[in-house]
Fold this sequence. Notes:
This protein has 263 residues and is α/β, with parallel strands linked by helices. The chain folds into two domains: 10-144 and 216-262, Rossmann fold; 148-213. 22% of the residues lie in helices and 36% in strands. It contains seven helices and twelve strands. A hairpin with a 2-residue loop joins strand 6 and strand 7.
Amino acid sequence: MGIDIRMDAARYYDYGPTSPQDLPFYIEHLPSPEAKVLELGCGTGRVTIPLSQYCASVRGIDLSSAMISICREKLLKEEMPETKVKVDVADITDLDLGQKYDLIIAPFRVFQNLETDDEVNGFFDSVRRHLTPQGTCILNVFNPNRDRETMRREWCSEDEELCWEVMTKGGRVACYDKRARMDKERMLLYPDLIYRRYEDDILVDEAILKIVMRCWYPQEFEALIEDQGFSILNRWGGYAGETDAGTAYGEGPELVIQFRGEA
Length: 263
């Protein structure tokens, strides 16, 4: 499966804030307490483990063995049986578990990490392969805060920007964002996430995670899903309080779409 790009950074994933606050949203959209859920890009189990308390089972898939290892440690600590939660290392763009699920999710912009059209097509093939006849999938991406031309002109920067910082016993952990480069034709962003751990004010560890984030604008995100042959059921502009406040699709910070099997 290649190099695990999250190997060094995985240990810092759970330090950061879990924005957007999406867990209540996924709980609310479980079709029933008997639902079987497939989570694509489950990471360290941020959504996987608590969501399992509200449904029959959750199957989590992630390409990073380091992230899955942390998730499995949590499951052991929680004494969670595999009949309730099972996680595996696998490619979400080329997946065949031989099972069907009532709800498929890919939280916290997992879908945007797919760089190529082949990966995007493979992802939707995986969704199609695993949905029950009445099952639905919920996807989200961020809503770009600038139009294309402004994004192309302004996004890249050599400066580091502080994303978050948390205090720890005897020190702190901080995450910085450096906007390294951009594919302006394909609207692919290549940020570096830089994690640093300090004891007092002394830097004792650093991990750099180089990722890709593909920009999808509101209309093209909808069109993509429909072009893949799915039927869109709902659209939202965010999660939790944002939806309660009536944030319309295309106006909030997130683009969230629920869809079902082929139209």
